[in-house]
Amino acid sequence: MVNSVEVEDLKVVRDHTQVLRGISFTLAPGTVTGLLGPSGSGKTTLMRSLVGVQTGVTGSVRLLGEPAGARSLRRSVGYVTQAPAVYADLTVIENLRYFAAVLGADAARVTAVLEQVDLSDRAGQAVHTLSGGERARVSLAVALLGSPQLLVLDEPTVGLDPVLRRDLWLLFAELARAGATLLVSSHVMDEATRCDRLLLLRAGQLVADDTLAGLLARTGARDAEGAFLAIAEAVPA
């Protein structure tokens, strides 16, 4: 079985500063992995490296058996950035129809992804009139159009109310059961309970790669936040 993600000795230097410091890990198909860490820890840089849009990268990064950024991965990998990457002056459905045409996705996928992200009732609304959480869900819908095997999601639940956060995590679990692999970044430690596995970043270093149960056993902490603090404080910045 080919791993969905294989990263070996990944380093990123930006403006003469080492942002990522020799990171290595693999992700198996059909799993939800949480990428946790404080702001500035390197989460976004790592995700950008995975999808092939980061400069200053050394080391090996392969997705679905192909080098990161390969053209062959265009439909197989979905990427949702922190800032919604959609056209504000178009309606929700116009955005989805446009990106479906770019990807060569079946038109039926537009209706399907609208339902998945619970935006069917906003289909004819201009994106600039939506709330921040709704715009984020439009971006997620775009990422789902190609039925990707790998989803890389950068802080997808920021600004969402608790009900929508819960519903999105239920969707993530459903996608994983169907065989997709998800890497979901967050600085909200309670979201760790919804992940099969956790990668903890601090100052560009991968300080832990384990299940939540494993981290709690390792540290004796009561929750994910306590485990992260215990591990982070033991690692020099």
Summarize the structure in words.
The protein is α/β, with parallel strands linked by helices. The protein is 32% helix and 26% strand. The chain is built from seven helices and ten strands. It has helices spanning 43-50, 92-103, 108-116, 132-144, 162-177, 212-219, 224-233; strands spanning 5-14, 17-27, 32-36, 57-63, 66-67, 77-80, 150-154, 181-186, 197-202, 205-210. The strands form two sheets. It has a six-stranded mixed beta sheet with strand order 6-7-8-3-9-10, with helices on both faces. It has a four-stranded antiparallel beta sheet with strand order 2-1-4-5, with helices on one face. α5 links the parallel β7 (150-154) and β8 (181-186). α6 packs across α7 (224-233). The model has no long low-confidence stretch (mean pLDDT 93).
Q: Report the radius of gyration as a whole number of Å.
A: 18 Å
- Our count of helices gives 7
What's the helix-strand series? EEEHEEEHHHEHEEEHH
SS content category: alpha/beta
Mean pLDDT metric: 93
Query: What would the principal axes of the Cα set say about the shape?
Result: globular
Spatial sequence of strands, sheet with the most strands: 6-7-8-3-9-10
- Strands, count: 10
Helix content: 25-40%
Distance from first to last alpha carbon: 36 Å
Largest sheet: 6 strands, mixed
Uncertain residue ranges: none
Strand content: 25-35%
